[in-house]
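Z., the sequence and structure:
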Amino acid sequence: MIRVQLPTHLRRLAHVDGEVTLEIQGPVTIDSILDALEARHPVLCGTIRDHTTRQRRAFLRFFACQEDLSHDPTDKPVPAAIESGAEPLLVIGAIAGG
């Protein structure tokens, strides 16, 4: 099982409490995780990735195993700890301001 932690505003939108667990068939990548997440919670389509380009939204970041994965290719396999379910994929809302 893949574990995903969403920021509060996306948890509220999807009506989920805590972590989301997903079953992924095939290679486990950020793309495959987000595809499964959006398939289970269609209301999240377009909130994490742009509808057309499928690029990460500017104020969201991906973290796993104390690493920022936000700029890695989204078709790259995630760390083994994510694939095994030992660690969650964190989707974090970035904070901007002066």
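The longest strand covers residues 60-64. Residues 30-40 form the longest helix (11 residues).

Let me know what you think.
H.
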